[in-house]
Amino acid sequence: xxxxxxxxxxxxxxxxxxxxxxxxxxxxxxxxxxxxxxxxxxxxxxxxxxxxxxxxxxxxxxxxxxxxxxxxxxxxxxxxxxxxxxxxxxxxxxxxxxxxxxxxxxxxxxxxxxxxxxxxxxxxxxxxxxxxxxxxxxxxxxxxxxxxxxxxxxxxxxxxxxxxxxxxxxxxxxxxxxxxxxxxxxxxxxxxxxxxxxxxxxxxxxxxxxxxxxxxxxxxxxxxxxxxxxxxxxxxxxxxxxxxxxxxxxxxxxxxxxxxxxxxxxxxxxxxxxxxxxxxxxxxxxxxxxxxxxxxxxxxxxxxxxxxxxxxxxxxxxxxxxxxxxxxxxxxxxxxxxxxxxxxxxxxxxxxxxxxxxxxxxxxxxxxxxxxxxxxxxxxxxxxxxxxxxxxxx
Length: 394
Ligand code: ATP
Ligand code: MG
Prior knowledge:
Order of helices and strands: EHEEHEHEHEEEEEHEHEHHEHEHHHHHE
Shape: elongated
Number of helices: 14
Largest sheet: 9 strands, mixed
Bound molecules: adenosine-5'-triphosphate, magnesium ion
């Protein structure tokens, strides 16, 4: 168990004058996340790093896992913190730190020093060579290897001094909430959760909407979507999920429109409703899990026909990804096992055997004219009766 952790962040570092805004957001996200880990922690900025100090017993693995889900983190390093920056004290702490972590196994190392405190009496190269000699002298199982060391030994001299042996990868990206909010169309499939993860990684807060069609889709299908939102919320914190009862709308389309156009017309109604909620909740864009040519409704013509009903930009983070790549990412974020559970999808129940793959917008608009009278009250009702579920990470 380390007594403190230094968090390095990558992209935030290049944000110029806005940097403090990103740093503050990251500190906030880190605080929210560590609050859900057993223990007690103090989180603060430390010149280009974030410092998490542990004030009570905690499980290091759990804490690192938690921190590695926070977008904006590049690396999480368990460190020993040295309040007195006397060089001998630093070396003693360093040897202690290494012994605790590597026990007496043999290893090769190289020392790296970073000196943010420019008043410190030693220069970095001198710190490296002196500390290296000290380690060799006090840990007989150690050996220097400057070309391909097994361990990078770090000494950072800041307001205080820190020593550590590398770190664990963070989640990358930008802190959630620094790039506005978007509405994710979340189904129970593989793609849309990955799309949500990807957009959130750019700092976008997400809200979600799911179109449910009971009794054609079961409670378990809905539960699957709730579970998927829960998995994404591990990265984003709370997600507000709107569950729309889509049955009547789907039936109206089914009864009044050509069957080869059902999917595309259904999708257009999903987009219209999603946009209405999005606007009300101050979202700036819609997000879907579509990728070109994956299925009939994802040709460029179909995507254009769905976009035609939206005023907001529609983002499709998976647009140029292969299914295999999407599956790998789904596994990486821990959604795959849930996504492949075999519950019915509202769209598969009503799809035609031979859907149009190259819909012409004018033909679709013509077909939708049959809905002019029936649809507005159904859409209004679906919107009004939607269920709003606030989903929190476990
Ligand atoms: P996914 O794996 O995300 O379900 P998919 O490959 O099954 O995607 P489609 O069923 O054509 O593709 O859906 C395309 C996109 O439309 C989805 O990624 C999702 O963003 C949205 N979508 C589809 N069905 C629903 C639904 N029932 N509720 C909310 N969004 C949906
Ligand atoms: Mg689907």
